[in-house]
Specification:
Helices cover 44% and strands 20% of the residues. The chain is built from eleven helices and twelve strands. The chain binds pantoate. The site of pantoate (PAF) has 12 residues, from helix 6.
């Protein structure tokens, strides 16, 4: 497959790197010029759970000279989804699939409004990754990836995509619909991301303090209420327990929001805890815990 990764930070490199190793024709796209230069000159240095190696890759900052792709994977931070997809519109032809595995609510719909919802496959991934420096990524945690159509039915193309990912070493499953996946992952991020960024702790530390666990549970439970009011079926029977389990399983991870705060970057708070507040407001559901978490992160961002 001819594949372009739009937003080749840590996660984009983990996916792009594995797919390159499986002989797909991958181009990594990123705005960080030093990173793109290092990738082209020295290859992608990948270390961590999937092993240490250097993978030969092609990387560009500007996608305008690239041909139409079979698959475009969007991995930019949520704030840049629309502009990045518009800038990459020359890569999307009538048969291109556009896949998002980003955190948060609304990315798949935003992409669909630009490229057409029928082209969009959305999903969630449990892989974790951290940038070590230009061209260097730590694959911090391994886990399942699950994908499904944004609208319409599960197709043989989506199943083939899942198989191609699995063959490249990224275990992937295809399901009927992306919505419950996105909401179920959203509730994990709702419980972990803001709290770890505010408390400046790794994911696993959350599970060691009763007060932190209590706040995590309150934030997730508000999300559960909002999801129920929207008739979204959640995958996990007990979303709070699942969130605690993920925090434990990814115990050594620095959550993506804590990474953003450490690097003084804008966070994805608006599409995570902020999204629960916004959706709750529309439905008349009180979301005080998510409100406070959102405001605290906003102040932290202003203090950079
Ligand atoms: O955003 C993240 O960091 C990840 O989605 C997760 C699952 C919280 C693990 O760190």
């Amino acid at each position: 497959m001819r594949i372009a990764v739009v937003g080749s930070g840590a996660m984009g490199c983990v996916f792009g790197g594995h797919l390159s190793e499986a002989s797909h024709e991958v181009t990594l796209i990123d705005v960080w010029t030093d990173h793109v230069k290092a990738l082209n000159e020295h290859g992608l240095y990948l270390t961590g759970v999937s092993g240490e190696r250097t993978i030969e890759v092609k990387a560009v900052t500007d996608p305008s000279d690239l041909p139409v792709q079979d698959l475009v994977i969007v991995f930019v931070k949520s704030a840049y989804t629309e502009s990045a997809v518009r800038d990459a519109s020359n890569l999307i032809g009538p048969n291109t699939t556009v896949l998002t595995l980003q955190n948060g609510l609304g990315n798949a719909q935003a992409i669909g409004s630009i490229v057409g919802a029928d082209k969009v496959v959305a999903g969630v991934t449990s892989h974790g990754a951290t940038m070590l420096g230009p061209g260097q990524v730590k694959h911090a945690g391994c886990g399942e990836t699950v994908i499904g159509p944004l609208t319409g039915k599960l197709t043989s193309e989506i199943m083939a995509l899942a198989d191609a990912f699995t063959e490249s070493g990224l275990e992937t499953r295809a399901v009927d619909s992306a919505e419950s996946l996105i909401w179920s992952k959203l509730l994990v991020n709702v419980g972990i991301n803001a709290l770890t960024a505010i408390l400046r702790i790794k994911n696993g530390e959350l599970t060691k303090h009763d007060e932190a666990k209590e706040l995590l549970a309150m934030a997730v439970e508000e999300g559960v209420q909002v999801a129920a009011a929207k008739d979204v079926e959640l995958i996990h029977e007990d979303p709070v327990e699942n969130c605690l389990q993920v925090a434990e399983l990814t115990g050594a991870n620095i959550s993506s929001m804590y990474q953003d705060v450490r690097a003084k970057r804008p966070t994805e708070i608006d599409v995570i805890n902020g999204a629960i507040v916004a959706e709750g407001k529309k439905l008349g559901i009180a979301t005080p815990t998510n409100f406070v978490l959102t405001k605290l992160i906003k102040v932290i961002e202003q203090l950079y």
